[in-house]
Write a structure and sequence with these properties.
The longest helix has 17 residues. The protein is 49% helix and 15% strand. Helix 1 crosses helix 3, helix 1 packs across helix 7 and helix 8 packs across helix 10. The termini are far apart. It has 323 residues and is of the alpha/beta class. It has 14 helices and ten strands. It folds into two domains: 215 residues, 3-Layer(aba) Sandwich (Rossmann fold); 93 residues, Rossmann fold, CATH 3.40.50.1100.
Length: 323
């Protein structure tokens, strides 16, 4: 049994009020050209339209609210990220007057790094991948007596579930929903909202073929580390699955789909040409997976989580040029 229970409907509704103190619900639209491309009714939840350009901010606001409510706001938090979780931490820490140090791998997204610094984050580059950055962040937190914010936690899921709660209430006819998996908060939040609302949608988890820890862990029934090789889907570039997230996802997902960097790049281009929205690699992964399965989806109502649009200009220029 996993130690972090899923949030209830009351938990998610309370978290929504915390989120809405900072920004309004994000839109969801049925896009005509994507629907033609998919051969299905295609709805997109636009988490790229939030104030840090990604869904993670919801989790950060919820996490800090729970710390504040319990009287345990620290003087400093430390965490690790490839970018969007770090922006979420920076935003929420600033709101609560807490110092925030974030560790990223060497060579991380230049523009995500700049966005974090603009939110008041002290940024440290360390290690050659997310796992190495995370281990260094934990050491720093231990040395400083700072609060280490994990990348997966029930209080993060509580906040992230608000976007799925919005989506499933706005489009009750959804039959399939595709969600990328990094550490797992987004996919676990989808499971939480589905159960809280008693919704019949079937949830498909999307994993980069260059970051297979969740695929291998599903097959083994326990956490199995896997090397990371994806260059484009940095938000999914996780080497070691979270055991609590794994337990929830094994129980709550319909199935998993693996997408290559080539498929992700094509999906980024499709989002741009069909909707003129910017999707980062992980943000486009749900569309890439649905396109892979489009024969099975014909005539269905399909929901895609566009989880973020924070892609460096130089990277996006290369993706567009590859068409």
């Amino acid at each position: 049994m996993h130690t972090n229970p899923l949030p209830t409907l009351a938990d998610i509704e309370a978290a929504a009020q915390v989120v809405y103190a900072d920004f309004a619900p994000t839109p969801q639209y049925r896009w005509g050209q994507l629907s033609v491309r998919l051969g299905a009714d295609c709805w997109v939840k636009h988490e790229n339209h939030g104030p840090v350009g990604a869904f993670k901010i919801r989790g950060g606001l919820s996490y800090f609210e729970q710390l504040a409510r319990s009287g345990q706001l620290p003087r400093e938090v430390v965490s690790a990220t490839r970018g969007n979780h770090g922006q979420s931490m920076g935003w929420a820490a600033r709101r609560h007057g807490v110092a925030c140090t974030i560790v990223v791998p060497v060579g991380n997204s230049v523009e995500k790094n700049a966005a974090m610094r603009a939110l008041g984050v002290t940024l440290i580059e360390h290690g050659d991948d997310f796992q190495a950055a995370r281990e260094h962040a934990q050491r720093l937190a231990d040395e400083r007596g700072a609060h280490m914010v994990p990348s997966y936690h029930a209080d993060l899921v509580r906040g992230v579930a608000t976007y799925w709660w919005e989506f499933l209430r706005a489009v009750p006819q959804l039959q399939w929903a595709y969600v990328p998996i990094g550490m797992g908060s987004g996919a676990c939040a989808a499971v939480a909202a589905k159960r809280a609302l008693g919704h019949g949608v079937r949830i498909v988890g999307v994993v980069s073929s260059g970051a297979r820890t969740y695929v291998d862990s599903f097959a083994a029934g326990q956490v199995v580390a896997a090397p990371v090789s994806t260059q484009l889907a940095d938000g999914m570039a996780v080497r070691v699955a979270d055991p609590d997230a794994l337990a929830i996802l094994m129980d709550g997902l319909d199935h998993l789909v693996q997408v290559s960097d080539e498929e992700v790049g094509a999906a980024m281009r499709h989002y741009f040409t069909d909707t003129h929205n910017l999707a980062e690699g992980a943000g486009a992964a749900a569309l890439a997976a649905a396109l892979q399965e489009r024969e099975a989806l014909r005539g269905q109502c399909v929901g895609l989580a566009l989880t973020g649009g924070n892609v460096d200009a130089a990277v996006f220029a290369r993706v567009l040029a590859d068409a």
